[in-house]
């Protein structure tokens, strides 16, 4: 499944267009490699997403074409959330 669609279906990011923009800005990594919106994801992959001042690392548990709200949180496991301090120049 495409990365942008997975992020929307799993409700990690609310809109697919926003997921695509985040990927185009180089803020998403799959297994340590910078990902594009069209990158394929599969169960077992590890996502690292930069949300502003926060970095979220998640493991993909399963991939579904569509999921209800209750099922969406079972598609991934949050491994780590860390805050990033911005340095002033």
TrEMBL record:
Keywords in alphabetical order: Protein biosynthesis, RNA-binding, rRNA-binding, tRNA-binding
Superkingdom assignment: Bacteria
Domain RNA-binding S4, residue spans: 1-64
Matching Pfam families: S4
Protein role: Key component of the ribosome quality control system (RQC), a ribosome-associated complex that mediates the extraction of incompletely synthesized nascent chains from stalled ribosomes and their subsequent degradation. RqcH recruits Ala-charged tRNA, and with RqcP directs the elongation of stalled nascent chains on 50S ribosomal subunits, leading to non-templated C-terminal alanine extensions (Ala tail). The Ala tail promotes nascent chain degradation. RqcP is associated with the translocation-like movement of the peptidyl-tRNA from the A-site into the P-site.
Complex formation: Associates with stalled 50S ribosomal subunits. Binds to RqcH, 23S rRNA and the P-site tRNA. Does not require RqcH for association with 50S subunits.
Family that this chain belongs to: Belongs to the RqcP family.
Protein name (database record): RQC P-site tRNA stabilizing factor
Source organism (scientific name): Sutcliffiella rhizosphaerae
Protein's gene: rqcP
